What does this fold into?
Amino acid sequence: MDNPFAGASGERLARAPATALVIFGATGDLTLRKLIPALCNLAQDDYLPTPFVVVGASRREIPDEQYRQMILEGIREHSRRKIEDKIWQEFSENVFYHQVRFDNQNDYHLLKERLDNICRQKGGNLNFLYYLATSPSYFGLISENLHQAGLVESTKHGLRRTSVIVEKPFGHDLDSAKRLNLELKSSFEEKQIFRIDHYLGKETVQNILVFRFANGIFEPLWNYRYIDHIQISVAENVGIGRRGEYFDKTGIVRDIAQNHILQVLSLLCIEPPVSFTADSVRDEKVKVLKSIRRFTTPQQIETCTIRGQYIKGYINNQAVRGYTEEDGVAKNSTTETFAALRLEIDNWRWAGVPIYIRTGKRLPKRITEISVLFKRPPDILFKNLSYRGVDQNVLAIQIQPREGISLKICSKPPGPRLRAEPVVMEFNYGHSFGVPSPEAYERLLLDAMKGDATLFTRDDEIEEAWDILDPVLHHWETKDSPPLYTYEAGTWGPKEAANLLKSSGRRWRRL
Ligand SMILES: NC(=O)c1ccc[n+]([C@@H]2O[C@H](COP(=O)([O-])OP(=O)(O)OC[C@H]3O[C@@H](n4cnc5c(N)ncnc54)[C@H](OP(=O)(O)O)[C@@H]3O)[C@@H](O)[C@H]2O)c1
It folds into this structure.
């Protein structure tokens, strides 16, 4: 198994084996906006395997050439950089389109013939990687039809590796996630299933493991003795855009907390894995998720969670609508657009360290940050001096839009008086490495082609994450549920969110 961090220091990545990537939902937004631009960027960096083909598969009947034009427009609009003409020529010659109506079995047999032909043309047994860029309601149907058509091979006796990538949302609650797992596993083995959480493809998220385990100075402090608490904030200033109908059935906890935040949290808090192989890392992540204290009583949910919904307000001095005025949203909707929770990990390392998470739409800015706040030193030496405060040391891991790490320390400002003031030491990805970070999908697509599942979510991780949040979501739906607070668009959520921390003398970090 390749080291998942290979390439970080500039060494050559081992090339993935010859692959045909078959994208179901090939004309959809995800494919055109994210997947194809990511593939083109991989082509530009010469990371793609040879041979490599893309076969787009969806409902409409489209000639290959027209599909190539369609994706070229997507690339022009959405790629993080301009793709050279020569690279596009080579790439597009290997892009094909095949009509597949998801519920039509015959289409899958025709797809098989087409793939066999392509393999013959390319002179080899390409691996088949299926990307289900479709609603999860199709995951079971597409997998079953692929299986029936002989397009899924066993990992032991198959001639080629066949695997499947599935997109979020993975379930609506624990039961539906278990059902989805069963549906997928009736056609694929667990090791053939790659559940994508694009947060794990971000450089800054991958760096959490390197930061923790490649630096001797932090690991001894990484526990309840030195850490006072942790805050994880995922803030967006945008509203729900054109996703009103989807979001209104989903809410921010399902959309962001259940997957991205719990994934980031589990990486941040894991024990050192035996190695950086997929299962070693994921075994440790599951242990963290299992150790997160479950919400077992309504009272616990009421004291440890806050939910809110935005009303009209201002973002960047522009007036914006309230949530229930958005397109596709029910006028009496009680869907949360903001949530804050206090979690605890009941294990030896983290006993008594609260982890506060908050996420919301229409907050003042787009920012994702993990802040680790260390315990204050004893106040004995400084208590009689005039100073602005011996502040807590804060290690902030910035995931987006800034990518880097900062450490707030106390320092003596110049001058005759002995004072302590906070200053910040910073590491910034762009400055330090001098290259822009690739898009998360680039790394994840490449890893899936190589069969490396380290950055993908395993079935048990998904189910544990739902198990943590299901009781909260269910309680919020009952008539005894705690109030849904409102907040003006452009503010940091309902003012009640401060209460989660206030009783212990803590407050949300100003971001
Ligand atoms: N868009 C994103 O950035 C994003 C990000 C994360 C996750 N996701 C998830 O990814 C999934 C796809 O999202 P999307 O935004 O790309 O959706 P979308 O724009 O609605 O695209 C859906 C695709 O599925 C095809 N399709 C639908 N029903 C079909 C059928 N019965 N037979 C054959 N093809 C069919 C459509 O083909 P036609 O065009 O021919 O109808 C289209 O290619 C969703 O579950 C979404 O939640 C999306």
In short: The mean pLDDT is 93. Residues 25-30, 33-34, 58-60, 101-102, 133-136, 167-169 surround NAP (CB under 6 Å). The domain at 201-370+458-502 is CATH 3.30.360.10 (Dihydrodipicolinate Reductase; domain 2).
